[in-house]
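Hello,

Following up on my earlier ticket. Below are the two sequence lines again, exactly as submitted.
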Amino acid sequence: MIFLSDFLNAEVVDLRQHRIGRVRDLVVVMTEPFPKVTGVILKGNPKVQSLDWAVVRSWDNKELSLKVDESSLQPHARADNELWLSRQILDKQIVDMDGRRVVRVNDLQLSQVDGNLLLVGVDIGSRGLARRVGLEGVGRRLTSAARRDWPQKLISWEAVDPVKSDVSSVKLRIAHTKLAKLHPADIADIVNELSPDDRSAVFAALDNEKAADTLEEIDEPQMQASILERLDVERASDILEAMAPDEAADLLADMPRDRAQLLLQKMEEDEAQDVEELLAYREDTAGGLMTTEYVGVLHTLTAAQAIDRLRELEPDAESVYYVYVVDEEEHLLGVLSLRDLIVARPETKIRDFMIKNVISVRLDAGPREVAEITSKYNLLAVPVVDEHNRIQGIVTVDDVMERVMPGRMGGRRRRRIF
Amino acid sequence: MTSPKALQRSLGALRRRQVRFLLLFAVVGPGVITGTVDNDATGITGYALAGSQFGYDLLWLLIVTAVCLVAIQEMVARMGTVTGKGLSDLIRERFGVAPTLVVMAMLFIANAATTVAEFAGIAGASQLLFGELARYLAIPLAAFAVWFLVLRGSFRSVERILLLLSLAFVAYIVSAFLAHPDWGQVARHTVVPTFHLTAPFLLIFITIVGTTITPWMAFFQQSNVADKGLHPDDLPLERVDTYTGILALNVVAFFIIVATGATVFAHHVQVDPADPSAFAKIALALKPLAGHYAEQLFAIGLLNASLMAASVLPLSTTYAITEAFGWERGIDKSFGEAPAFITIYTTMIVIGAAIALIPGAPLALITNLPNIVNGLMLPLLLPILIVLANDKRIMGRYANTPLFNVFSGVVLVFLSLVTLAFLASIIFPGLFKA
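Thanks for your patience. The regenerated structure is below:
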């Protein structure tokens, strides 16, 4: 990744390796969607104070090499709509729509696209801070020695709206309207940095599906709960309905009991029932980990009918890995992959080609046992059954891994972006 | 339709309200609050030690420190009014991450040391009032009270009560008069500098400078000014407020020195700050007023001053640090909302209380120590203030005038010389004769 701090103070040398000066600042012109670097401001040389980005040939290791001689350099031609990155954006306060403080711009992320250097992101994390004082390497060694993840915290430039309030400062705004266009994981990153009131404001701006996805991406259960608590009951229950039942149950478990009850009552009956069942299981068992969103089809169907049934159910991506074959009492008889269904002749009964020896776990199995089984048999999800072999739900591999190795999966999923 | 008479009446009311606003502002504006909080445990102890050990010899220094304060506090008040930003804001935006980290680390250390001193002041006061063991109850109690009132109670009303209680300082003024000092001597020492090139004198000298001119005051006053949302048009008013605060601060300092000079010094009582009985000896200064209750009166004043500073100092430090890194802050926020804010604030109070609790700690010495740390930090902070106040992009037409720069430059040279002299006296102990 390229950052503004890699350029600041870098030595500038011309074609004949003569030192010209050092980089004071980079100039961008405000193009959409990402600003483009057009010039370099120099220090340490009274004769050459700026140059166009076009004459830069390459850079590495804090050195900027030019395509031309010092003698043929022209000063950078000022244009309208320009920003000096270090002077006008770096270190500025990021505020939300209500003018409340969120964090500061610790560094700026640049990216090379089609020969242009673009400003693509804002670094708001501790890595950015460490990088600015030359300690990122030390920090990374320390964190890896402690077997900890040290994720970059970046916000896409698209989510940021510089407001030129006066000449002395540029305030940055996270525009809620732009937020809605981002990936839920990105929104979750930003929401993490906001104050509780503002989090709720952000959620109020999202539709139910997006709000549900974003809520699922937030790692801290308490934060999830506090966001939901600040929304009105109708809206909160709508979002809960849109969430996966297992996530919704986890979330409700972290809420005050009476509030959770109220929300459950307001939810559609079907969804509420799923969630209530999950709530009954202890959190550290397969029952607590599982989701009730799985695809179950009757063993009497043909392959074609089973595919039709899938179309009706419109299952989420998370639950479509396997199709479970059940009888009328939901006893687990077999399992099919989507591939099996599609390649089978349409009129074949599914019980004739299903895999009868299904790997499953009991409701009270511990997370470690579930993890071992999924990894031993290379499963993406494992069905959970009660004592009579009736299917109750499935545990997906990422849910169980997150429980067994906290941080790792979360870190990977949340790491970034462009 | 409004009659001309009614109009005139309402205009008059409006003008009266403006006058009242001006008066109120001058009485409890950011400058006055800052000045009053600066008369904390370290301040009282510092001035009292000066008067006890050297009589009126150091009175002239108060004029000098007042002038230095005018230079510094006028600049921060102006920056706060013009930019609406705190000092940390400006430092981070103008100088970037590395200098900000250095300044914040120094500020944290200096203010943590001062917070220890405030709790030591609380300990000392409680010992005078209730006996030797009272500190072990008083410190945890005070720490919890300060923490709780600021984060969970109404800080503003607590602050107002403490400000009102600081009228107790009037006791020193009365006591100074009742002690019948030689006013001719007092006047002479106020305008004619006296200087002894000895280690104890230099120590008291830098102590007075360090306790009067502190880095946290700059941060505290600018944040307060910025929070008030003043407009550049309010600058004259804010200047009045600043000068009033400095005047109030130095008048109290002046009479503490006179009162101790006319009593403790005049009766040749030896006061050693490392001696546990130092507070009791200093309290003699209030004997002309309070007789046998001098110790109690001294203790109440010290307790009040320490409590106020013990709540304001960690708070102002926490504001400065969270501001520098742009984190959510505010005393009405929960831990989930502003974790960094609550953590830093709590840490400072815990550190302060814990160190002051150490058995047998020389309290008067601990109260004196932060003056030195502050004194060392000032020559580093002042250039930063001068650069900021000169930056036309930040200050526009309110940037420093050349004359003001000469003024603040002289102040900087003076403060640097004091610090250098002090460092020299530490590194070469034999340099100045004892």
